[in-house]
Amino acid sequence: MTDTLTPVLTANWGDKAPWKIAEYEAQGGYDALRKALTMTQDEVMNAVKDSGLRGRGGAGFPTGMKWSFVPQSNPNPKYLVVNGDESEPGTCKDIPLMMATPHTLVEGVIIASYAIRAHHAFIYIRGEVLHVHRRMQQAVRDAYAKGYLGKNILGSGYDLDVVVHAGAGAYICGEETALLDSLEGRRGQPRLRPPFPAVAGLYASPTVVNNVESIASVPSIIANGPAWFASMGTEKSKGYGIYSLSGHVTNPGQYEAPLGITLRELIKLAGGMRNGHELKFFTPGGSSTQILTKEHLDLPLDFDSVAAAGSLLGTRALQIFDETTSVVRTTLRWIEFYKHESCGKCTPCREGNWWLVQMLKKFEAGHASEGDLDKMLDVASNIGGRSFCALADGAVACLQSAVKEFRSEFEAGTHTPAWELFPYEKSALFAASERTAVAASHTSLSTSEAGEGAEEDAKVTAPPPLLNARDADEVVVAEAEAAGDIPTQLNEVFEPKTNDEGGRA
Questions:
Q1: Strands, sheet with 207-211, edge to edge from the N-terminal-most edge strand
Q2: Terminus of the chain with fewer CB atoms < 10 Å: N or C?
Q3: H helix and E strand count, the chain
């Protein structure tokens, strides 16, 4: 793993219009499909097996083996479902891929569907990213127009229809069985397994659910051969992958590299840590993975090495934090996310995450009591491994690892607020002066457009400086008290309105 990888998935991201089918074809697009259609379904499946491709959605299960679990003796239709419901904090690889080169995914969908003998495929995308949904829809329409989709694809006799589906916006729908429920028109909640989707998935029929990046990697395997793919990466984690770097690095973004690259190398690619600062901790695979520290800078970022270090490679979402960051505050923000996104189906997750948020707020505010830390860890231990799906496991993973690595910061929460130990402005990526300059530019624009006499009005309407939630609440209350509005507001809220006869309105 010493050779520098020439980008594959991201090779054309910098082109003028890489999402257009003509540009994709000019770069050899759909040639892999033509090659696959000259092979048998089993040959395509074995090629993916031999490549060593492991699922890029987080679990790292061998993709070809997953395809082989589909029982071909089952008379029901076979389905391929592509999981594009990317929404975990820090994870940002599938959405840019679909936005930049959607035809890479479309071609992969056709090849994968052919391998498992499916004639219907679904691409499930998070509904909030409307621009991505529209781009994928256009790519599918273009593929139909060119004869890559529909009846008798390229004269092969193989038929395939693809549907691009917009989810309603729930993190839980990234869990494959919840995604299937959502596709069927029901509330997205995890299913009890077995049966597994390969046997009884979408519409109780054999179904393969794969991540966007997993399917998008298939065309290059077919085009260049499994040995080419297996030559990259490490012994048990073959090939390449997109690493998403966010946080306190000079140039955050997506970096494609062989599996097994180290964080030290990735930070160098990203221009280093921001000036004058050093790494404190990071997540190797999104907020649901155990945090690692600067001691792991040279840890190979592959499935097995990261697991041996006590964490998970996950989605390779590297959230990078320097020494100005409060671990308590960061953990609270993550747990708030999981509390909000819990589907509510099982008690440990629904109630446990709520209680974790309440306790973490006390630590952040410096109001925690002696024994609260052990109590919080006890609550976490009663959540992890006892929930219906892995959402709660991910929530407690970041908390337990944070306490393990930075216990003293949590203990400080018994007497000192986190915003005093780690001021917000120190960890902010943009200085207050920069925000002021932006506000001033908006002010000058508004005054120039409005003409004379608008300057004073602009001063009044200029946006206030950014406040943390606690300070903002205090400001609102203080302003209401000064105006004498609080009693009136309370009466309006808590006193039921009555009709003329004294009954409830």
A1: 161-166, 120-125, 79-84, 207-211
A2: C
A3: 25, 9
Q: Which residue has the tokens 């219009």?
A: 17
Condensed to tens digits (0 to 9), the pLDDT of residues 370-380 reads: 999 999 999 99
Neighbours of 77 (CB within 10 A): 14
Cα–Cα separations (whole angstroms), residue 134 to 173, 179, 297, 357: 20, 20, 39, 37
> From the CB of residue 399, how many other CB atoms can be counted at a distance below 10 Å?
27
Residue type, 184: E
Q: How many CA atoms lie within 13 A of 296 on its CB side?
A: 25
pLDDT tens digit string along 247-283? 999 999 999 999 999 999 999 999 999 988 999 999 9
Which residues on adjacent β-strands are paired with residue 80?
A: 121, 208
Radius of gyration of the chain (CA): 26
DSSP secondary structure letters along 66-129: HHHTS-TT--SPPEEEEEE---STT--SHHHHHHH-HHHHHHHHHHHHHHHT-SEEEEEE-TT-
- How far is residue 77's CA from residue 203's CA, in Å, rounded to a whole number? 9
Q: Is the peptide bond before 195 cis (omega within 30 degrees of 0)?
A: yes
**Whether residue 7 has a cis bond before it, omega within 30° of 0:** no
